[in-house]
Write a structure and sequence with these properties.
The protein has 19 helices and no strands. It is mainly α. The chain has a single domain, classed as Up-down Bundle (Growth Hormone, Chain: A), CATH 1.20.1250.20. The radius of gyration is 26 Å and the shape is globular. Keywords: Membrane, Transmembrane, Transmembrane helix, Transport. It comes from Canis lupus dingo.
């Protein structure tokens, strides 16, 4: 009698094949892509990421003109960024769900069309309908959610190990670079045209180019393809969204790193939106700048701060990724430790930058640059932490939840709260340029303490990192990898193998 299929034994799946015997299980062919194709795809995704973050902060570069055009106070101006972030975080779980189960390329294309069209339409809104401008910023945030959620998972499936770390470092360089160029573009277009609205009319041309490159040059790799996770690549073992969320809630490396990212988001949200105006008012207090009463406002600090953000962002991301890569050779917990050290060092730098702006303007800029550089060290590293501790089948959901938590507790409210506190302090003080500056300065000071709390969260991440990385690499039951491990275990224990009848 021949051995039945699925019954381990000599002549069965664990033995050689023969007449009447079951063929050995075959593993799926790993998905592969030529290296140059993967590099081209990464370059396109980096270019679109640049445009994505330019859209995030393009309003901040022309904030004074937007306020004058729509007659918006500080508290309501902060609400502009809050609306943007709230729509982004509400949309992120939806796009994360779609990205884990449907075509990521189609979802990314839809998001680009959404934010590009909303940004263009916002430039044609009249001053009497300021609420429509707020609405257009919200729709831009919805489109941006698709890219921020899904694009890193595509890169994670195109590259592995050190290659992935380097590519993610380059990808996340464009967060500070795009943010800085958003200020620069807004300021430069304003000086050339005298109308801040042309800033929003230039961007769609660049975004359409990015969409065409995405459709023609970027593949949609199987989920987990680069890690050779056949379960994810074949779509086997698909879990529900609720099961993914429960799994992530018990993944303590993911939980603590998400809280650390939230602290970073709170601080960067407040600073990136208000610092150009803060520096402008500091310059007025020092007598280096006339107050802005009518349009257009010539705010050279938007250009300076944007350039500073670009330079420190490039240096910081490269420095953080390289420090993590080298330190990991001697300490497997290098990634969260690098994040913790950079945030704990950034806290006093930001505090001194804010405190010294009234007395020594140049020294304030130096500490601000150091603080930005240290904050930028983390962008690529936190993405690598997530990809290393989360199963490939739910990385899109993990990205979405991290984005949602980071924004809802971080930069969704920090620009609005900063403006609200500033307006409340100004209402209790004499109406002078010095008091306006001090009100905004005092509303900023809590940022230094929040960023120190973020450093503590990454220290806690380091305690759980190795265990969660091991679990993320472990094949799930029923996959080819797990079957192979079970087969090896049976062969190493002959007594466990039943004899053939």
């Amino acid at each position: 009698m021949s051995t039945e299929c699925g019954e381990p034994g000599p002549g069965g799946p664990l033995g050689g094949s023969g007449p009447g015997q079951c063929p050995p299980p075959t593993a799926s062919t790993p998905w592969s892509l030529p290296r140059w194709r993967a590099c081209v795809a990464a370059a396109v995704l980096c270019y679109i990421n640049l445009l994505n973050y330019m859209n995030w902060f393009i309003v901040a570069g022309v904030l004074l003109d937007v306020q004058n055009f729509f007659h918006i106070s500080d508290s309501n101006a902060g609400l502009l960024q809050t609306v943007f972030i709230c729509c982004l975080l509400l949309s992120a779980p939806v796009f994360g769900y779609l990205g884990d189960r449907h075509s990521r390329k189609a979802t990314l294309s839809f998001g680009i069309l959404l934010w590009s069209g909303a940004g263009l339409s916002g430039s044609f809104i009249s001053p009497q309908h300021s609420w429509l401008f707020f609405l257009s910023r919200g729709v831009v945030g919805m489109g941006s959610a698709s890219y921020s959620t899904i694009a890193p998972t595509v890169l994670g499936d195109l590259f592995v190990r050190d290659q992935r770390t380097r590519v993610l470092a380059i990808f996340y360089i464009f967060i500070p670079v795009g943010s800085g160029l958003g200020y620069v573009l807004g300021s430069a277009v304003l000086q050339l045209t005298g109308d801040w609205r042309w800033t929003f009319r230039v961007m769609p041309c660049l975004e359409v180019t990015g969409l065409i490159l995405l459709l023609t040059l970027v593949p949609d790799p199987p989920r987990g393809a680069a890690d050779k996770q056949e379960e994810a690549a074949m779509g086997a073992g698909r879990s529900s969204w609720c099961e993914d969320v429960r799994y992530l809630g018990t993944n303590w490396s993911f939980v603590w790193s998400t809280l650390g990212v939230t602290a970073m988001a709170f601080v960067t949200g407040a600073l990136s939106f208000w610092v150009p105006k803060f520096l402008f008012e500091a310059r007025v207090v020092h007598g280096l700048q006339l107050p802005c009463i009518t349009d257009p406002c010539s705010n050279q600090d938007s250009l300076i701060f944007g350039s500073l953000t670009v330079v420190t962002g490039i240096i910081g991301v490269v420095l953080g990724a390289e420090a993590s890569r080298r330190f990991k050779r001697v300490n497997p917990r290098a990634e969260p430790l690098v994040c913790a050290c950079s945030l704990l060092a950034a806290a006093p730098c930001l505090y001194l930058a804010l405190l010294l702006a009234r007395t020594t303007f140049t020294v304030s800029y130096v500490f601000l640059a150091l603080g930005e550089l240290l904050l930028s060290c983390n962008w690529a590293v936190v993405a690598e932490i997530l990809l290393s501790v989360v199963l490939p089948r739910c990385r899109g959901t993990a990205e979405a939840l991290q984005i949602t938590a980071g924004h809802i507790l971080g930069d969704a409210g920090s620009p609005y709260l900063t403006g609200l506190v500033s307006s409340a302090l100004r209402a209790r003080r004499p109406d002078s340029y010095l008091q306006r500056f001090l009100s905004l300065q005092h509303s900023f000071l809590c940022c230094a303490f929040v960023i120190a709390l973020g450093g503590g969260c990454f220290l806690l991440t380091a305690l759980h990192l190795e265990r969660d990385q091991t679990q993320a690499r472990r094949p799930s039951p029923g996959t080819p990898d797990s079957t192979k491990e079970e087969s090896q275990a049976l062969l190493s224990h002959p007594r466990a193998v039943p004899e053939a009848p």
